[in-house]
Amino acid sequence: MSRSRACLAGLAAVAAAVPLIAAPAEATGRSNPSAVTMTLSPPTGRQPIGTVSLHLVDRSRPDPWVTSQRYRELMVSLWYPAGRSANHLPAPQMTPLAAADFDRTLAPALFGLKPGTVDWAATKTHARAGAPANRAAGKLPVVLFSAGFGAPRTIGATVVEELASRGYVVVSVDHTYEAAQVEFPGGRVERGRVPLKPTQDDMRKAQDVRVADMTFVLDQLARLGRGRNPDAERGTLPAGLRDGLDLSRIGTLGHSMGGATAAQLVHEDRRVDAGVNLDGGFRGSVAQTGVAKPFLQVAAESHTRASDPAWKSFWEESSGWKRELRFTGAQHYTFTDAEVMVPQLKVPAAPLIGTIDPGRAVAAQRAYIDAFFDLHLKGRNTSLFDGPSRRFPEVRLIP
User: Fold this and answer.
1) Residue 112 maps to which CATH number?
2) pLDDT tens per residue, range 132-176
3) Closest CA to 91 of 123, 47, 45
4) What is the pTM of this model?
């Protein structure tokens, strides 16, 4: 069983076991007045940020998971440096129905929590919903983000917000019917349809679907850059957003299967210039071919190419700029928002995020990811990858 499959198949099974219905209306409110309210780590960049969600419809292909659907639908969120936004409220991390479904499915599976323990809908991001883009920032590099197998796009806010605050347009993508829940406009929630016990073929299919999703998203960003509105509802786009994308500089990153997706996308799509894999296990052709473009491997303490044959072959065959980092004391979910959530939930940390200090872990992964994209998308030199860092002694550069 692959790393991402072993870690997340259980979550998919729990989610799939719940009836495929939208959460009841009463579940969208805060039913437990004593429920915990989560906070996210504030981004450290100088730019205030905005966000907007888009409903994208790919009419060129039927949905690969639900054969009765004649076309593929996705929800994505764009995060970007914002201009004046006093009249725009902070965006929630999760929309109400998605939060209610997360509470009933993934929260118990991931954190061992009873439904109602946390008011997931109350978690606020640091981005203003629909805020105008900062026109003074000019055209900015674009980075695509994909979460782990079965996970929603919202679980990567810690990394996504940081990049946006440092001058990137970040596009986080939900992979419908694989993600445990995706809320569409109008209160429609589509839940995961991945088999209860996914096979290797199911996992390979999921990655293939993800790569096709990301390719389609890039096509829609190109439309946006040409002045079109790709949103299916033709919702109002933030002022200045169309002019803020530099599609000649594109990166991609992801956690777990999202990281494997990033590698395959770098390999297959000539538009993508560089990628980051956050502790994901490879599958598909890229494990044997590697990539010829810049790529960063970020690993939990027990997961490197010494323990993973696919990582080893990927490394040996990759001919572009490459680095591999090991985070001492880290576990698989260190590279998700679980790193900031677990300490607030007071649940056992070791199985999920390990023994690494949460604040240090967040600061380190932000620093290395920022430095990687600054180097390869903005041409800014850094010494962070030259050897051991006094600033981050818990991060080892694997030769």
Assistant:
1) 3.40.50.1820
2) 999 999 999 999 999 999 999 999 999 999 999 999 999 999 999
3) 123
4) 0.93
CA distance linking residue 56 with residue 175, whole number of Å: 11
Q: Are 76 and 217 in contact (CB under 8 A)?
A: yes
- The conformation of residue 249, written as its DSSP 8-state character, comes to E
Coil vs helix vs strand at 343: helix
At 121 the three-state DSSP class reads helix
Q: How many domains does the chain divide into?
A: 1
* Span 176-195, average pLDDT: 96
Domain span at residue 314? 3-397
287 three-state secondary structure: helix
CA 271 to CA 273: how far, in whole Å?
6
Give the residue among 276, 300, 281 at the shortest CA–CA distance from 366.
276
- Pairing type for strands 49-58 and 72-81 reads antiparallel
The conformation of residue 29, written as its DSSP 8-state character, comes to: S
CA distances from 102 to 35, 293, 344 (A): 15, 36, 17
Q: pLDDT digit string (tens) for 3-57? A: 444 444 444 433 333 333 233 333 434 457 789 999 999 999 999 999 999 999 9
